Each structure stands twice: as structure tokens, then as C-alpha cells.
């Protein structure tokens, strides 16, 4: 069995990581390989005082007091060089516990100083120290209405490092997460749950195994990302004849080294209470996966072109139902590409002839 080392960087990365481990422990309890890094010790201290305090090894934590002040340069240039050796030592210790190290799974934000600056500095360090190990990154981008004035600059500076040093990036948009939560709240408050949303089964809530401390404004958004990562890593955490690991995702969905940004979606917006998935519900899930309302980044698939696509399905699903849906979407995509080519040809034909 292959293993991965989780690297949680910054406030956002550690909060999402906390939600992820909470959900993962409900499925199976095991010793985790994780390195928690933040130049402000508040979030990490919350984790150590909360219900997950016995999950993380206190020797695998790296914190400071001052923080990066929402400044990419401070996180990248100042704290990067200051803590490089200490971070490397803890990463080596985590890697030594793995029998077959699969990848480094980095979780960070693009708007914060530590997440964007130190998070991307870490990618270069990993590339130099572990060149053969994949670097899979989940990056949370700020929305257009972000109140931190430096977040656009931090994102642009961090993007250059992601282009050069990441093998695969899963971008998450804060605005898309907020839109999903608003739609869920609208359905729940209307009282008409139907087959779309099930009560006490929302992906935006962590209530369940652990007694959750008072929820914060971003907890629901973090839980959506944590559920996405939970499904993404399920193949590596459970045995199965059709399972695929994170390296296979990168190999099959990344055609060129720097064309490594993936658009993600999540469906359904509730956890399946029953093991068996009826065919009608599966058909709806396939349709929702390609709907802009379920995308975790603001992109409309119907106005874009797919180079590759991977669908990861959890639960007791019939292979025949999966094949039927794949064939159904193959026909739709063929028609879309055909229409796109016709439009391009018509534009060429309408161009005026060059005069010599």
C-alpha cells in the first residue's frame, strides 16, 4: 500500500486539514503522516486543544509567533530560509515512516502570507530534496470581494511558483464555496429537502463523531474542501480492484508539465446514508458533476473544452450503470466538440480575403 505525507501550511491549510482528519478518522483510525506549519500559532494550538489533539505528533509541528502579515515576501523569503532545515528534518522523518511514499499532499491558501509564501517555497524545497516524489497541491484562491488588500498580489506571486514546482494543482475558489453554501441554506430553509439534500447529512457540517467547538464563518467552506479531499484520497486509503492513486490522476490528467491545473466538482452535496446507489440517483450525480453549480472553481464546463476527465465514484455502484452514463456523456461531448469545430470553420470562411 502506498502512503502520502500531508503538509498543512498556514491558517487555511491547517483548518481544512483539521476537517479532513476529522472525517478520515470516522472512516478508519490510523496513524497519520502530517506536518503542520504556520507562522502564527493560534490555529495549531486550537487543534492541539481540540478533539484531534491525540492524532498529531507534537514533534511534527512548526510554528512562530509574529505571523507573515498577509505578505507573500515575508512567508517566502524570510520564514522560508529561516525554517528550511527544520521543515526538511520533519519531512524526512515523516517520509521514513512510509514503506512506499506516493506523494506530498500540500494544502494551503493563495491569499495569506504564510500559505502563499511559505507554502510555495516548500514546493521548491520538496522538488530539490525529493525529486522523484509527486507534489500534489490543493490551493484555495481568494474571492473578488476579499477584504485583505494584499491577497491579489500574494496569489499572483504564488502562481509563478505553482507553475514551476507543482506536479498537479487542485484550485479551489472561495466564491464558489460560498455560492454552494448559499444554495444549500436556501434549500434547507425552504423545508423542501426532497432527494437533493438530506437532513443531518450535509457536506458543510462536521457534527457527528466529535463534539464540535463553536463553528466559525469559514467552517462550512472548509468542510466542503475536506469532503473533496476525503473522496480524492479514498482509493489510497481503502483496497479495491478499480482503485487509482494520486500519481495516476496526475499522469492521466496532466498532458504537459505546466498544464497541471484541474477543475474539481463534488456531488452529491450530502453524504450517502445508504450503501447502494440507485441508477436514477447515479444518473443525476453524473449530470451534476458537469454542472457549474457543483464546480469548486468558477468555470462553466459547457463553455470550455475537456482534454481529459476522471470520475471517482464511492459506494456500491453497478459497473453497467457507470458504463451507461459514460456512453451517454461521450455522445454529448462529441456533439459539443463537433459544434465547436463547425463554429471555428465558419469563422475562417467569413474572413475577408487578403489583398496583395
List its traits.
11 helices; 356 residues; alpha/beta; 6 strands; single chain; 6-stranded parallel sheet
Describe the structure.
The chain is an alpha/beta fold and 356 residues long. It has helices spanning 10-27, 42-49, 72-96, 113-129, 151-165, 174-190, 219-232, 234-237, 246-253, 279-289, 319-350; strands at residues 3-9, 34-38, 61-63, 101-109, 134-141, 168-173. Helices cover 47% and strands 11% of the residues. It has a six-stranded parallel sheet with strand order 3-2-1-4-5-6, with helices on both faces. α1 (10-27) links the parallel β1 (3-9) and β2.
Summary of the model, kept short:
The chain is of the alpha/beta class.
Q: Which helices and strands occur, and which strands form pairs?
A:
Blueprint: E1 3-9, H1 10-27, E2 34-38, H2 42-49, E3 61-63, H3 72-96, E4 101-109, H4 113-129, E5 134-141, H5 151-165, E6 168-173, H6 174-190, H7 219-232, H8 234-237, H9 246-253, H10 279-289, H11 319-350
Parallel strand pairs: 1-2, 1-4, 2-3, 4-5, 5-6
Strand order of the largest sheet: 3-2-1-4-5-6
Give me the oligomer status.
single chain
Largest sheet: 6 strands, parallel
Determine the fraction of residues in helical runs and give it as a percent range: 40-55%
| Uncertain segments | 208-214, 334-356
